[in-house]
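User: I've been going back and forth on whether these two constructs are worth ordering. Before I decide, could you fold them both?

Assistant: Sure. I'll take them in the order you sent them. The first construct and its structure tokens:
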Amino acid sequence: MMSYVIQPPAVTSLPIAGSDQQFPVRRVYCVGRNYAAHAREMGFDPDREPPFFFCKPTDTVVGVRHEDTLQLPYPSETSNYHYEIELVVAIGKGGRNIALEDANEHVFGYAVGLDMTRRDLQMKMREMGRPWEIGKAFDQSAPIAPLYPAADVGHPSHAGIWLQVNGEDKQRSDIDKLIWSVPETIAYLSRFFELVPGDLIMTGTPEGVGPVVAGDLMVGGVEGLGEIRVQVI
């Protein structure tokens, strides 16, 4: 038996739809500005430049079962706390330099998630030319609903993606508007990192991002992958 000087952290995992099994999470990659309309609303030209990535720590992930509403505390040190609804991809087969035509073979499944953002801190860091971690990588910043195995749902390339706050539409688009598709993202990312089973890729958010405050209820989804319900407290 291995002996540790402190208790190792618990394994972060996500529920799998229709199963009592869990998907262990290793690493979380996030694609920045991957919908043209969102790039424009953030003040950038949406030309198809190579994708860029940032990471969230594994333990920022919070699994949310469809029947539950996650009670999410408003984070510290911000007054501009934003939602970003996203398609999440779970890697089930690792590899480097994955060919575009083989990329889907590396996907275990798909889910709907939220990239919660301390927007004021992110923008301040961006203006100073510094990393985004305090705006993107804080505790509980990645609520994610159950994973749907690709063996059951296939590999969606066209599906509605949406988010409501207190019953009002805020984001509504389609994943076919991704600047870089899921296979393209996997192929490109695997040039720089060895992808490993357990990795997640948050693929970017469409236009309509905005703030929430304590008491607000966010309900979002991706067609065919169910919904996620999160209330800010």
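The second construct, handled the same way:
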Amino acid sequence: MTEITNYITNDFKAIDSQDSMAAVQVFFDELTFSHFPVIEEEIYIGSIASNDIETFDGTKKVLDYKYSLEGFFARSNMIWLDVLEVFAKNNTNLVPVLDEKNKYVGYYEISDIMKFFNETPFLFEQGKIIVVKKRELDYSISQIAQIVESNDGKLLGLFVSATDGEYLEVTLKISIGPVNEIIQAFRRYDYEIISEHFEDNYINTLKERSDYLDKYLNI
């Protein structure tokens, strides 16, 4: 699998703090970046947001608006999931990358990170997606893995896809295994099944009984 650092790019040079704001406004007009890194004497000092520059005076320098820069960044040794978190927390489509000595080395674009994500086994490998719900206090990764594997399933990965402070929804992907048996095992351990499955005999049985009851009541 490709290393995430292969997606670090320098297609466009970082904005210099001495650049005019007019030049930066033209730069953003021609591109679709939500943010772009700013450097001062080769040192990263923050990212300027495209939404902010509309109100800035074009005759001034970027340095005059240093107070508005956002300081988020990723490290070149970060794993892809941590990089994705930086994107999400800062509502951006571009993240500057610094090395362990704080030297600016380039940036990641969200489209490239999603491309990398698509190459992970979690998405690339064929399998079934199951979404389960459980009280947060009772949530256990080891228990979820044990339920899947003890029913002849193979777990490709999982993540917490929703939470309200009391309950968690967990999305998991299995590559092999009897889906119906795994679903019923989750129910025995008091997990609610959020996703719908053709193989789910429990739901099918309830529907058949409901249809029978409706028919009986209409006699």
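Notes on the second construct follow. Residues 148 and 182 are 6 Å apart (CA to CA). The chain has a mean pLDDT of 87.
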